[in-house]
Amino acid sequence: MLIKIKKGWELPESAATSESTFLNRRSLLKGMAAGPILAATAGLVTGCDGESSQTAQAANNEPDPSANLYPVQRNLRYRLDRDETPEELATTYNNYYEFGSSKNIWQKAQALPLRPWTVKISGMVETPMEIGIDDLLAKMPLEERVYRHRCVEAWSMAVPYSGFALKDLVDMARPLGSAKYLKMVTFKDDSVASGQKAGWYPWPYVEGLTIEEATNELAFIATGLYGKPIPKQNGAPLRLAVPWKYGFKHVKGLVEFEFTDKRPVSFWEEIQASEYGFWANVNPEVSHPRWSQATERVLGQDERVPTLLYNGYGEFVADLYSNLKGERLFI
Ligand code: MTE
User: Fold this and answer.
1) How confident is the model at residue 4 (pLDDT cuts 50, 70, 90)?
2) Ligand 1: which of 38, 49, 94, 96 to mutate, judged by most atoms within 8 Å of the beta carbon?
3) With bands split at pLDDT 50, 70 and 90, how would you rate the model's confidence at 58?
4) Residues whose CB falls within 8 Å of the CB of residue 230, separated by 6 or more in sequence, listed in order
5) How far is the CA of 29 from the centre of ligand 1 (A)?
6) 227: left (phi > 0), else alpha (psi -120 to 50), else beta?
7) Is the pLDDT of residue 69 over 50?
8) What strands lie across the sheet with 181-186, from one edge to the other?
9) Which one, of 316, 282, 296, 234, lies nearest residue 82 by Cα?
10) pTM (predicted TM-score)
11) Percentage of the chain modeled with pLDDT above 70
């Protein structure tokens, strides 16, 4: 295995993982956690995940059958305190480890076929079901929302997503009263996503919310971006947007929604729970174990800006956490 460590650009060098960390598979996992999300801090390049190769998988360029659904009407309840990020930045600076650990994966992500795409609703629900993405889109009331997005790596953006409230999907699923959590799962197919050949990651990418979080009005399933179908690199055909939480919760390329009474262990939590927890609510006063969360670099701007508690969405979500004082709400 070839391992190359490059200096990151936006985080203090002290946050980068030292080469000696990468001694064996176990330390490699810890080292990855020590760098997430790693590429931003240390730029891990391996011979196993295809990152060293510039050759992208053949692009899957079929026209998106949902293109005629967009643009949709903007919901003006959700307002920005800053300018929208230029589209070309938000769609070329991405985290999507399935396609590699650098920010520059947008071309590789074009290999992902978007049809057929079946979404499974499983677990503690009245009637488990499988539904094709186009049938799901036809059922859901689509709207546009501009949301801030704050990555745990301390960069941020503000983008117009189109999609539907996650609550609408929960209502359609009719979970049993005993369901406490919603687990969301990304596709798994290493023939198109070369990053998934890296066996030391716990694929597939998984994230979870409590049912109360999932039915909060802010929780959104994004199926569009900038008035068009959401690009593959941003999570097509559907990804989560929970803007009060760090970006790693915003799971992409969703194929399954499982209702459960067990708290899901998410992808990054499995790798390094001390740095990436279940709650991951944005808080400028609670540092990541290796860097401050007090400020953020807005994509496309030179100056850092202060980070806001719950990423500025406290009026919508703070009540969700008022009885959870013993929990690590901000990691
Ligand atoms: N979802 C999957 N399946 N795989 C990933 O690597 N990265 C997460 C999140 N969702 C990720 C994912 C992280 S760390 C961030 S910051 C956001 O996606 C980035 O979303 P964007 O590329 O649309 O900005």
Assistant:
1) very low
2) 96
3) low
4) 161, 162, 163, 222, 223, 224, 236, 237, 238, 239
5) 18
6) left
7) yes
8) 129-132, 118-123, 254-260, 181-186, 206-210
9) 296
10) 0.88
11) 82
Given this model, what pLDDT does residue 79 score?
93
pLDDT averaged over every residue in the chain = 87
SS (HEC) of 209-278: EEHHHHCCCCCEEEEEECCEECCHHHCCCCEEECCCECHHHCCCCEEEEEEECCCCCCHHHHHCCCCCCC
The ligand 1 atom at the shortest distance from the C-alpha of residue 253 is: 3
The set of protein residues with a Cβ atom below 6 angstroms from ligand 1 is: 37, 94-98, 151, 186, 205, 234-235, 247-248, 250-253
CA-nearest of 227, 216, 222 to 241 is 222
For the purposes of burial, counting CB atoms within 10 Å of the CB of 85, is it exposed (0-12), middle (13-18) or buried (19 or more)?
A: buried
Nearest CA residue ID for atom 10, ligand 1: 251
Task: Judge contact between 203 and 264, C-beta under 8 A.
Answer: no
